[in-house]
Amino acid sequence: MVAADQNQGGAAWAVLQYVAGLRRLGHDVLLLEQMPPEAVEPAGSALADSGNASYFSRAAAQAGVASGAALVVGETGEAHGSSFDELVEWTASADLLLNVSGILSDPRLFEQIRVRAYLDLDPAFNQLWQEQGIDMHFAGHTHFVTVGQAIGTPACPVPTLGLDWIPTVPPVVLDRWPVADGPGDAWTTIGNWRGYGSVEQDGVHYGQKAHSMREYVDLPGKARARFRLALGIHPGETPDLEALDKHGWPLADPLEVAGTPDAYQEFIRGSRGELGVAKSGYVLSRCGWFSDRSACYLASGRPVVAQETGWSAFIPAGEGLLAFSDTDSAAAAIESVESRYEEHARAARALAEEHLDSDRVLDRLLDRLLG
């Protein structure tokens, strides 16, 4: 989602990288988001006059993909950016649908497309919810793509549901993410303390960032570095807020520093590096999830110290990108980067160029889907 859940620049970039990257390869791309009626703000307003439409247009423009972008509401036919009839005509001629989390559900807008790929950006959770009877909109798709690179391998216990999952890494459009100037200030990250409900399966609690972050609350006392978290956390989370403050985790308002694609990019480029603490569900499932946010840090020449989810079996760790699995290894990784910061910064960009460049990632994905 870009418009239905506004003011999340990172979530917007996660989608817009695909749009900008496919256009770089010379393809004609339509960015089409379907919103539920209750997401329109202010309530009762026409879609064209809504804050959603305004944010959607700004976000697309900031990512350089303003043309060919449209919103629709539910199955009512209310549209912004193009008429509903124009959207039906456009999609009828399309070769491929990349349906992020199955959000596009109106069959009039995709049933005529030959290759309909479900794009899973939230591995483990989507598969577990579906197995537990929650409809994650898998039906109607011909292919299934996931950024959980270990889904379907012996290392990962997540059910495949009988589907042949195509693994991919998150693409980053390198010319939209040039190397940042200077060494940056603090080690940062951006995220929500609780994004949505956790999952219980076979006695395992697949939780949120809150459940992971609590295990690393004393990290600032062990790593000689400055930290700053752009963290969406409810003010009622008093014990956690007190613990973060006590242990030296300054907080920034994510709406202020990362609410738009431009602000999100500026925050990353002004950082020294990323401390990537993952949702505990990604960690416990060993699904191989790797953050699209980390891809942006790496492309900007900012080293990343990322919690292990099984990703290091698919993306090389060691220079510019280091893995950790506990507080001591996180502190050691940060100190290793600090001891040779410029070398790690150069290696970060080089890794993004070799493994995460949208030209390579998306060309390879299209071969799997359309070849």
Walk me through what this model shows.
- With 371 residues, the protein is an alpha/beta fold.
- The chain folds into two domains: 9-168 and 358-370; 175-356, Rossmann fold (3-Layer(aba) Sandwich).
- Helices cover 35% and strands 17% of the residues.
- It is built from 13 helices and 15 strands.
- The strands form four sheets. The protein has a six-stranded parallel beta sheet with strand order 12-11-8-13-14-15, sandwiched between helices.
- Helix 1 packs across helix 8 and helix 1 (9-24) crosses helix 13.
- The longest helix has 16 residues, at 9-24.
- It is globular.
- The protein starts with 8 loop residues before the first helix and ends with a helix.
- The model has no long low-confidence stretch (mean pLDDT 96).
Q: Can you describe this structure in just a few lines?
A:
This protein is an alpha/beta fold.
Mean pLDDT: 96
Spatial separation of the terminal alpha carbons: 28 Å
Uncertain runs are none
Biggest β-sheet description: 6 strands, parallel
The SSE order reads: HEHEEHEEHEEEEEHEHEHHEHHEEHHH
User: Number of helical segments?
Assistant: 13
CATH architectural designation of the largest domain: 3-Layer(aba) Sandwich
Helix content: 25-40%
So, the CATH homologous superfamily of the largest domain?
Answer: Glycogen Phosphorylase B
Percent of residues in β-strands: 15-25%
Quick one: how many beta strands? 15
- CATH class term of the largest domain: Alpha Beta
Count of the separate structural domains: 2
Shape: globular
Category by helix and strand content: alpha/beta
Taking all Cα atoms into account, the compactness measure Rg is 20 Å
Strand adjacency order, main sheet: 12-11-8-13-14-15
What is the CATH fold-level name of the largest domain? Rossmann fold
